[in-house]
Design a protein that fits this description.
The protein is an alpha/beta fold and about 210 residues long. The chain has a single domain, classed as Rossmann fold (3-Layer(aba) Sandwich), CATH 3.40.50. It is built from 6 helices and 9 strands. The strands form 2 sheets. A 7-stranded mixed β-sheet has the order 5-4-3-6-7-8-9. β6, α6 and β7 form a beta-alpha-beta unit. About 45% of the residues are buried. The structure holds S-adenosylmethionine. S-adenosylmethionine binds next to β2, α4 and β4.
Length: about 210
């Protein structure tokens, strides 16, 4: 089976079968070459139903979790997105299909650099990546219609709540344990009011930073 066929099977068996219905998300997952976001020796596992190791002891997220978060963010072609924890850049690429612009922050310089090179080589032009502490957000491009946090923290960082547009959605793994969290969606209802929903248990690497662990 070639990679395109593997991606189609991945979407059918791992993603659509688990209830992801947003056609744009399913199309994006069929399009992004996950094998290009992992080391060569892991490329044969790129369409397995699992996270995989990347540099700096971090992970590329499980495809289903990337799709679940993208769907929960309710992205549209006009969305401005902030991603905290770009890692390999895989979820950045998926969201770049679904949004107008994606601003991604990664705390490991090497990962930020590699993700930036990869996304450029693959032609993702509506993405900017920088190295830094994403718990402080990226004020320059705020407010964001959607914020994806791909690492687990004790609570949602204040700066991220402030940088979310009214009507915007933020999705993040939250909980007192550094390895197991609840995936939370926060919706900003007004300047002052936020609503929280719980989307299920997940396991992410820790969010390390001024307003993380
Ligand atoms: N979605 C990514 C992918 O598909 O490759 C996976 C990201 S990995 C699960 C989480 C990333 O968050 C790691 O690369 C980690 O270095 C990063 N991270 C942790 N704390 C951070 C922070 N405060 N700011 C930015 N990135 C952070």
């Amino acid at each position: 089976m070639n990679e395109k066929e593997q991606r189609h099977l991945m979407v059918e068996r791992q993603i659509a079968a688990r209830g992801i219905r947003d056609q744009a998300v399913l199309d994006a997952m069929r399009d992004v070459p996950r094998e290009r976001f992992v080391a060569e020796h892991l490329a044969e596992f790129a369409y397995d139903d699992t996270p995989l190791g990347i540099e700096e002891g971090q992970t590329i997220s499980q495809p289903y979790i990337v799709a679940l978060m993208a769907e929960a963010l309710e992205l549209t072609p006009t969305s401005r997105v902030l991603e905290v924890g770009a890692g390999s850049g895989y979820a950045t690429a998926v969201m770049s299909h679904l949004a107008d612009a994606v601003y991604a922050i990664e705390r490991h310089e090497l990962l930020a650099h590699n993700a930036g090179v990869r996304l450029r080589n693959l032609g993702y032009g509506n993405v900017q990546i920088r190295h830094g502490d994403g718990t402080l957000g990226w004020a320059e491009h705020a407010p964001y219609d959607a914020i994806a946090v791909a690492a687990g923290g004790p609570d949602v960082p204040r700066s991220l709540l402030q940088q979310l547009a009214v009507g915007g959605r933020l999705v993040m793994p939250v909980g007192p344990d550094e390895r197991v969290q609840e995936l939370v969606r926060v919706r900003r209802l007004s300047e002052e009011r936020y609503e929280r929903e719980y989307l299920g248990r997940v396991s992410f690497v820790p969010l390390i930073g001024a307003d993380g662990w």
